[in-house]
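Field: COMPLEX_INPUT
Field: COMPONENT_COUNT = three
Field: RESIDUE_TOTAL = 1243
Field: MODE = joint
Values follow.
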Amino acid sequence: MAARDDQSEVATTYRSLGRTLIGRRALLRGSVLGAAGLATAALIGCDDDDDEAPPAAATPTAAPAQETATAAPATATAAPATATATPRPAPARATATVAPQATATPTQAATTAEDEAKRGGKMSWAQNTTAHLDIHQDSISGAQQIIGATYNRLVRYRGDAQLPEPDVAQSWEQAGTDVVFKLHEGVKWQNKPPVNGRDFKASDVVFGLERARSDDPSFIHSGDLAVVDTIEAPDDSTVRLTTKYPTAIILTMLAGYQWIPVAPEVIDEFGDIKSPEATIGTGPFIVESFAPDFGAKLVRNPDYWREGLPYLDELEQLDVEDHWSQFRAGNIDIVLVPAELLPGHDSFAGFLESEGIDGYVYSEVMAASAHGHFMNTQDPVFADIRVRWAINLIMDRLPNRTYGWPIGAKPSIALGMGHLAFHLPDAEFEAMPGFGLGRREQDIAEGLQMLAAAGFDADNPMEWRIMGWSVPQTLVGIDQLQIAVDMYKDVSGNVLQPSEQALEWGAWKQAEALHEFQMISSAYSMGVDAHDAMQKMYHSEGGRNFSQYANPDLDRMLAVEESTFDIEERISLMQDMQRFVNTPEEIANAWTGAGPFSYAALSGIQGIPMLWDSGRVDQVYRV
Amino acid sequence: MARYLLGRLVVSSISLVLVVVIVFVAVRLMPGDIVDQFFQDTGARPGQAEALREKLGLSDPIAVQFARYLGELARGDLGESLASGRELSTVIRDRTPVTFQLAMMTLIFSLAIGLPLGVLSAVMRGSALDYLLRTIAIGGISIPFFWIAVLTISLPAYYWRWTPPIGHVPLQEDPLASIQHMLAPALVGTVFLAGSIMRMLRATMLEVLRLDYMRTAAAKGLSRATQIRRHALRNALIPVVTLIGIRFIFLLSGSVVLESIYALPGLGQLSLDALSRRDYQVVQAVTLFMAVIIIMTNLAVDISYGFIDPRIRHSRA
Amino acid sequence: MATTGVGRQRELGAGRASVALGWWRAITLFARRQPLATFGALVLLFGLVIAVIGPSITPKDPYDTDVLNGLRSPGEGYLLGTDNLGRDILSRVLVATRFSLLLGLAAVVFGLFIAVLVGVISGYAGGIADMVLQRIVDAAIGIPFILFLLLIVTMAGASFLSIALIIGLYQGVTSSRIVRGAVMSVREEVYVEAATTIGATPVRVMARHVLPNVIAPVIIIASLNLGSAILAESVLSFLGYGVQPPDPTWGQMMGVEARPYVTRAPWMAFFPGVALAVTVFAINVLGDGLRDTLDPRLRGSVA
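Field: COMPLEX_OUTPUT
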């Protein structure tokens, strides 16, 4: 809403508008198409699983990871602190995990003259509606960025991959079911009553985590920490956490935006952390004001424990619709570029040129969702492995993938772009049956033979229904459905004759849960950790195992991979599983791919954080 | 008169209860609920979704839920949003000014355009101008206002890279900017409403102009303008007032579409959001709130009739 | 004015001797007196023709997607351009005609049934039945219609049938007042009283004397409701709550389909809207003409 001091400028600035819910719609699109999560959340890469993507069912897990190579100029100039902490190699081969040394000591970044020059200024972004700030009890509103700027957590995501790195924990040791975190010295709560800037203690972490995993059903994230057994604080600077079985992914889980420490006296005083007064963290910014559905203003925390940071004096979240036009009108500084604006452009640069306005730059944020066609292996038609194999061979992946991510899409199996480190290399996809663009004709011919063997040909076409969701106010799900139906007809002559089954999302969720469908066309968010993604989709008891795929071998591979702490080894095991599920005997899901979200920011904004929710917003500055 | 008022009041209350029942049942028969949304991605602990439904009261039989809801309403409590836990009376209070401002601006523009043109059309009856005005009026009620709304954004953006200002500035913050931001949607609504008013006013003016007292007025030697202003218009306006009462429904309902197109954070936008999230309480509360306004408006119109025309007062009581 | 109407009716029915000639004369008379309405009738007729033959005259397959070739501006190959999925807009506008008109007609027919049922019972029976029915009508009038429509359609699942029934029901209930009024005025007429006195059953009285007299308002309601039924469906589809694919509708094309692309492809919203606006305009001017011809007294009550 913002004061519009310069009406004429607003009026004469070109704005592309006309949609409500841009953010939401973009988000929905993202989810379907698999892009990253919540609009702005993802923009800065907050990992949130259940953002406000409402009926989309497929909520994107925004991927905190960002592909360094494609980073826009703004991001390339990351602040010195991160630059040293995370040396930005190619996104793969992460370093963190077993007892890493805490290199990210903030004090290194301390006040240099250069830092001083970066001080000051303000950054704004937009959300749709934000009801309250108690992130422990919320998954669908837009408080993530505010929380990310206000709180620290034990660990946060690296800038280039969805892998953990130190935040208030300066190091950790993981052995078996034990994880022991050593906290940074000198961390302080923000100077607001009732904590009044007191020292941060390990017991605050325990209190926060215990609250978040409370038995009260309103604490809706608690399922994520089901693997955690106990959390305790042996002393003021040590947190000890035990899991029910050895798991490498617990750290990635804990890096999520919702696992914030909370000071017990805040809950004593306010009962919850919904109000701006109760929102007190250890992070770089202090919530000064917050009005539900209208927005929030945050100011610099002068006592922030990372010295010299943050650079900006003020952050502002506006709860408004139509973020793109708000951006073009100059009301906000950073925005998710609606995917609808991108078709027809070969690159972001081309899009930029067509918009005809200088002064802003682009960056890609890797989303953690992927799109595919999921076949119900218990359905009479799809019970036949020959049919599933044929579908995987024949399908043209480009239309669905390009619709989802007009620029920058990639083939993928079960993993979103946020899990790039775990992806099979592009060259390997090209060689895989069904994925290779150079081998389409052979693949189609082979697929048709397979279908003929299963009893389907032009005289006896295979008929089935593809289920997709319809959500009010956006056609993303339906568009994807129609593209899929058309694609199958086009590539197969008359052999494949699918029809649309568009269900309103509530009905769709039910059909999905009861496995009352033949094939689903949708994108799903692929979890905070690559393991999570594969587990949900392929484990015999996975929460997203719609195809009812069950293979004890894969279950075992997942178990081994989960308890492997060495990151290189984990990556290699994950890649083996991707190969495994795309072998002819195992096909259950025909994946089309994944792609990035693109963000635009005013070029005056530098050091844009990849991980808003991890507190990296302290490194943003204006020039 | 008291009897008449009381009668109207009872009738209105019955209508209101019926609206509540219909809406209440309808939202609960929709597949899916807000709990699905909360857990749609991460998934819940075993039993957690059920427990949350229990806590929110969504697992009770509809009849029990309804009884509880009526109890809350009786205490003047509209309930809380399931998604945010916010008091709905507060939420609605925050959003109403936007919708109300849009409705009022539309109404004012419509009267400013519809009244003079309607009179002109009636007075010039049968002329080419009348024909033109009638065609315009019928065009106004035929051309989909939501189409015009999209075009006001689409065409200038495509050809001139300009659009009318989108979004909302609260009236108290900056009155001028606020009105400027709402100009486009209000004018779009006016296309329909002014057409409607023109048609009604023309029809009733024609009736009145034929009446005896008009002849008397003419015989008295009053100027044509005075005849129309003093005698004809005043009487012809009564049905127009009724029409405006009815069209209030359009203004409120239409806000769903216009607010969605012009990104105005009003009641329409609120209910669309809530509907897609299955936030039952919000949908119910907004519908109820709008129904109250509509019924009150109609009641006010009825009552004003009662004062204006004694025959109605007696016959209807 | 009222007498003129009756006179006109007589005039219209004058040529009974030769039925065919009579109809012809009635039509030419109508055309001379109501040129605009006649224009409307012709447009509507054209629309109906398109609704019937539309699917067979589309230049392209309206459902054929070509994602890599979307958002083409009107011109060569695609007279009205393509949408974001590369589908031909002209073909889709043509196909959608059938849906919009049929849905409107279905809603109106159902609505008339309701209106006559409720109106006649309420107006003729009076008393408690009238009381109860009129309270329901009050409630219906008090409902914020678009919101209510969204709600019910989401609940029932959006289909041709559900949308037509719900719009029809609403229109029927709200316009039953006009039928009721007509019935009440007839009821007081001497010949009805006479029929009752000589022992005619209420059903017979209604069928023989009351119904024929409400035909004029019914025709007028029908023609005026048709336009608003089509508009109501379009609003629903516009917001994305309408009928499910693969059927395109005008509202869906100009709304939920076109809005993300408003600044890049105005033709996506423009042409379906033209079709809708012209159709509704034609229906409304026709309805106006019919009203003036059949019963000008209704001018005030059906705006």
